[in-house]
Amino acid sequence: MRSRPPETIPFIRVFYKTGYQRFIKGLCAAAFIFFIYTTITSLRPDLQNPASIGTDASNYYAAGQRLNDGHQLYALEPGDRPVANGIDPSKWSFPLLSPPPIAVLWRPLAMIPGDLSMYLWWWTGIVASVAFAAWLILRSSAKVQLMALFLAPSLSITIWSGNLNALLIPLSAFVWWAGSRRKSNLAGVIVGVSALLKLMPGMFLLWFLFTDDRRSVRSFFLTVAAGLALSALGAGIAAHFQYLDVAAQANSVDLSPFSPISMARSIGVGAPFAEWVPYALAAVCAAGAWLTRKRPEWCFAACGVGIALGTPDLRIETLAWLLVAMVPFAAKLQPAPSKAQKPAPMPMVAANASVALPGAD
Predict the structure, then answer these.
(1) Which of 81, 265, 328, 358 gets the highest tally of CB atoms within 10 A of its CB?
(2) Number of structural domains, the chain?
(3) Model confidence over 149-170: pLDDT tens digits?
């Protein structure tokens, strides 16, 4: 008599499957902890001090400080806090590569004496990103966990970088929760703020449009309009027009080897066409979002992939945005029914049916 494999035996099969899932979950958790620890101790020890000149937190602080002093946002003047990129004319002509709203956000933070604001910003990003990673590991299936495992090095750099992504990635994951719980106004506000601070997260607007979430769309545009008005007051209208030149240089200077533009150039694509490769990738993802508009989780994931791959300067840490694309499959939340959907009618009781009353025999 041939014996049955243990994984096919009732009860034992349950424990077999549970043990496998726990092993994968433990492996992913250990990998994330290892990469987070190794990044700050060995791979990128320069990130241990967020107040060091040239770090992202220091550059944000310097931008807010320049605005508080009445100086130009995208140029250094005597007495300004040094910025590593800004003092290296062989690389950049501008001391800040982000849109003006991030500098306006930092104006009150730059008023805090000493390095406290930079450390508070740094630790907020660390806590938010670590909490997001822990949630993703605990909630997702083994397949999602294994895919997330490949992105552990990317997220570990983001966690320690002090970059805005350390906050925007967890916030973008929260967009799915808000949208799937019919908290459309909240979802629109989050995406609007994210688009003001870093343009690419605005691609989640397509998720709102393609799934016909009109309240989110309205909240998005109201948030962007209010944010631009505040940004114009805090940084000046001229700085916003100057950012067009900043963005053009950021998309062409000192690109990483992983950038779609760099890869296109390496295979012989000419300059007029190579610069359009990231936007072509974003367009492909946008088309995927439209094709999957009837399945909100896939539509959201397509937008997340577009944010990760559609940026001209794609770096290892930028790939952490792919984790946001996995959120709908880890959250296991079903989107709330739209207003167009009506509840099923209650069954009618036949006129001649007897109804038992309380106390009746």
Answers:
(1) 328
(2) 1
(3) 889 999 999 999 999 999 999 9
